[in-house]
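Any chance you'd type out a single protein's sequence alongside its tokenized fold?
>
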Amino acid sequence: MSNSQAGDASNMVPEGSTRWTQHDTNWVLSLFGTAVGAGILFLPINIGIGGFWPLIIMAVLAFPMTYLAHRGLARFVLSSKKSNSDFTDVVEEHFGATSGRLISLLYFFSIFPILLIYGVGLTNTVDSFMVNQLGMESLPRVLLSGVLVAGMIAIMLGGEKLLLRAFAVLVYPLVGVLLFLSLYLIPNWQIPAVTTPDFASLGETLWLSVPIIVFSFSHAAAISSFANTQRRYYKSEATLKSEAILRNTSLMLIAFVLLFVFSCIFSLTPDQMAQAKQANVSVLSYLANVYNNPFIETLGPLVAFIAITSSFLGHFLGARESFNGLLTKQTNISLAAADKLGVVLMFISIWVCAVINPSILDMMGAISGPIIALILFVMPTIAIYKVPSLQKYKGKLSTYFVLAVGLLAVSALLFNM
């Protein structure tokens, strides 16, 4: 995310100012737009397969998981002694050059798999729409995926103004349409039967769902830019204001996403969710295929396309910047050359992955979710015991909760391996 999305940081406010401003609202919307993407389109499938109780427990834990983790990462970025440090600079400052490079590499790999997921998801969404709604034959997958991935990257290469226009066109209408669709599905709700859960099965389902939930609510890719903007804008009040913005973002995100998840799950049976997972399409594409309703048939795949595209743009920006930073710090390659190399390598990787068509949910659970958990949950908690300015947070219940969630997500990766 560009800082210009959240206001011009040069328009400083007086220290001690606690009133809510348009700057704060803009950042809530920007962080919200970063989080609302392909993850929430697949979250109902993963949770819905497990039945009623995982849904309820996820609803209870989603807010503390989301808010406390992102608050911890923002605190970590703001703990730097330098006023303009990004994530890579902060980890090197606190953990040393070698550990800093390793963590920066993990940061890149927390974003890059998301691009692979979006390449697969976008190709499957468009293919499903062409076959099921338009009655067309499937295009060769290598051609369809290549055109779609190239089109999204072309927007990125068009410069910041084109990117910001794309966000304005994609993100905010997406919010309204998804909310409307969530409400539209309510007449189709079939409340599942509530039975005594099998605690062993419930525990395993929740455990393996943690990485998916972490992935679905994550807006970690924007936190470094967000925290830096607040530091320049609010100075000594940056931590306090950052926490307020993140809290409101999390409340808005959880309320919006939970309504969508509940609406989708109550509109489909667990068997239908399993079929959607087998088809490797988003819940909206599946809803469009099973409901004989022109409204859902049209809007479902359209919303899936917009959500995946908008999130792809935001995460490609983060991956691109992260790759450039890693390469220029480790080699003598110029920034321009590193940027060109990164764009080419990422295009080829995303294209190949889209052609191969691996399971999106398996990729979320086995790769992206656990790595995001390392960066978002585990690393900031370790920093609390290492960085003097963060040690005031030691011993707090929220610190242990964030660490426990992160370890659960990482252990799910080891189990899947």
The chain has a mean pLDDT of 81. The CA atoms of residues 246 and 259 lie 20 Å apart. The radius of gyration is 21 Å.
